[in-house]
Design goal:
Layout lengths: L17 E8 L1 H4 L7 H12 L4 E8 L3 H14 L4 E5 L10 H8 L2 E2 L1 H12 L12 E4 L2 E6 L3 H11 L3 H7 L20
Parallel strand pairs: 1-2, 1-3, 3-6
Antiparallel strand pairs: 4-5, 5-6
Helix pairs in contact: 2-6, 3-4, 5-6
């Protein structure tokens, strides 16, 4: 699976290469019991919407607050990811602890991301009210919890992505530029 877009011929020194973490949280996928589709759905969306060059760090881990917290620290602190998108573990099942793991490591919670994802998802399925997605910042990383279904990932990313480039700018992360044919990123004063 090709992840990210890294074309050194288009890089400039003034625009450092953005690093994006995709974290799949699933007991079964981490054990190899099924082929992950949600991480691939995130990567596919990013490939369409991000115009600038970027690289991805991809991880699959088992459910659990500690495993999520440890993976987020690794992606943010050691891998230097500007944006980390998680998928899975946001429902009400006992092992669905992605939001708890996220809250263990973020400095500031950005609840508007989860509110918007639930609102747009309700147009698709009534069970969106069971969703517990959230987002927050850890140093210069934006962490966003996405649902586990590929269809829901697309709906949620289409809703929240217009705010992501500006949020990355505000927290001092490396910039990403979006394809305006796919996504109109909000920029104050533009």
């Amino acid at each position: 699976m090709s992840l990210g877009r890294d074309n050194p011929t288009n890089l400039t020194e003034s625009k450092p290469l953005a690093r994006i973490g995709i974290l799949v949280v699933s007991d079964r996928a981490s054990q190899g019991l099924y082929d992950d589709k949600s991480g691939k759905a995130i990567n596919s969306f990013l490939g369409k919407v991000i115009r600038s060059n970027w690289i991805v760090i991809f991880k699959i881990i088992p459910d659990g607050a500690e495993s999520v917290a440890n993976a987020l620290i690794e992606l943010s602190d050691r891998e230097g990811c500007d944006l980390v998108l998680t998928t899975g573990g946001t429902g009400p099942a006992p092992r669905d602890l992605t939001p708890e793991g996220t809250r263990m490591v973020i400095g500031r919670e950005l609840i508007g991301f989860g509110e918007l994802m639930r609102r747009v998802s309700l147009d698709q399925v009534p069970t969106a009210i069971l969703s517990r997605q959230t987002a927050g910042t850890r140093n210069h990383s934006l962490i966003v919890n996405l649902p586990g279904r590929p269809e829901a990932i697309d709906v949620c990313l289409n809703a929240i992505f217009p705010a992501i480039p500006y949020c990355l700018e505000l927290i001092g992360a490396r910039p990403i530029e979006v394809n305006s044919d796919v996504c109109i990123a909000f920029q104050p004063g533009a």
